[in-house]
Every structure is written in structure tokens, then in C-alpha cells.
Amino acid sequence: MKKPTLMQQSTVKLADIDARSRLRPVSEAGVESLIASIRETGVMKDAIHVRKKKDGSLVLIAGAHRLEAAKRLGWEEIEAKVWTDVTDDWARLMEIDDNLAGAEMNALDTAVFLAERKKVYERLHPETKYATGAALAAKRWDATEPSSVAFVTATAEKFGLTDRQVRKIVAAGGKLGAGEVHQLRQAPRPVTLKDLTEIARISDPTERHDVVGRMAAGQCKSAAEARRSLKSGVETPVKDPVAAEFKALLAAWSRARPAARAQFVDDEYGAIAAVMARVAKGRGEAA
Could you mention a single GO BP entry for this protein (predicted)? Predict the structure, then answer.
């Protein structure tokens, strides 16, 4: 089998890039931050990565946020590194590792990405799937396999975790269905690893469905609380996290001295400008 080859780095048309089948949707905050940076500096720092398939079509490997930012800025072309002789699994690994190495990942996305990497790894190394006991642990995260070692080590260091905790995240993410992931992404309160571990323990499909649904609707603060409320039949009122954060920001702003406020605006000008533009656009549409 041929190794993936970097064919060229050049500009490609946005309209020619297929960006479907991604592991997670782009973050609105991430795209806005990129747009603010590009407007301030005049450049996009890194090229995206695409694969050129045998039929000549271009498929995105890494850089979904950069691609979306370019679209919103009205660009017709974007700088891209074009790869050939790329398999689906290699492309997925690159997408996963690119996000884990550089993106701001919440617990849910981290679990989904790590679980997917484990699946890809086992497809590339099928002999690891049928081992048991100590041999299973040794083979699935083979110390002689550089990409596996780099992956586990980098992830553990980034999140302040141990190898055992990384495996725990993989286990939690591996038990989530696509529908459950979609629902949990709608939850107003960030889903924690503790929540995912709790959900993974639920064997009854009906209870699992109800717990995920309550979290997605913001009816419970945690998966454990959702399970307790289902058993007791009593729902615990949950405060709106956005309202609570707004009050905290307003209180901090009110207490801050004028010099501190000025420094804050100066340091966060790009992000503030992006939010103001979005709010102004929303008001214009409402009018």
C-alpha cells in the first residue's frame, strides 16, 4: 500500500471542497475568533488539509473552522495542502489528532474523538482486537507504535490525565450512539466526563434515553441527578447557566476600575468586535 503523499500546497476553490462527514460540527465561537483574527492580521495563519481522490474530487481532512471562516469572509479560494494516496482511516486519524492537538475540546467531543481513534487503530491493527487481559492492554496501546504513544501521551498531558483516565474516556465515548451525541451537544450545561461515565453504566435503553433527554433539555445538572429524578419522580429545578454567567460578568464589570475595563476591551477587542457584529446582524434581521 502506498504511503500518503503531500502532492502540493496551493490555493483551491472553496466550492470544490467536500466538508461533510465530520466528527463534530464547527464551534461558532471558534469560527468567530478566527474571523476576528483574520480581519485584524489580514492573513489565515495555517493552510487546511485536503485529500485528492482518484476521481479528482477534494475532501477536507483537517481545518473545518478555517474553511468555514473563509466562507463567511466571502473568499473564493483558500490555501491548502493537497494529499494523495490517502485512505479513509488515515484521513480520519489526521482529523482526530489535528483536533486533539490544537482545538479547544470539551469532554463530550474528547470522548467521541478518542473512541473513534481507538476504532480506527483496531481497523489498522486487527490483531489487537482479539487479545485479552494484559495482552489486550499491551497491544491496543503498543509502546512500539509511535503514533499511538504520541497520541496517548499528548492527550494525557493536555488534559492533566493519566493513561488510565484516557482509557476511561475512550470507554465512555465508545458507548455513545450518534443520536445521543447529537442530543448531548444541545445541552445548555457542559457535559462532563463524570456524566458520560454515568451514562455508560446505564444498561436499560429506556432509562438511558430519558437521562440523555433530560440533560439535553437542561432539566438536570448531571446524569446522576437525572437518574435520581427518574427514580423519585421529582424534577430538580435548574438555573439557566447563560443567565448565571451573564450576572457574573455584569458583576465583575461593575466592580472593575476604568483602567481595568479599558485593558480588558483592548486585550479582547477582536472577540468583542465579532460578538457585536453578530448581535448587530441579528437585530437587523429582527427589524
Answer: chromosome segregation
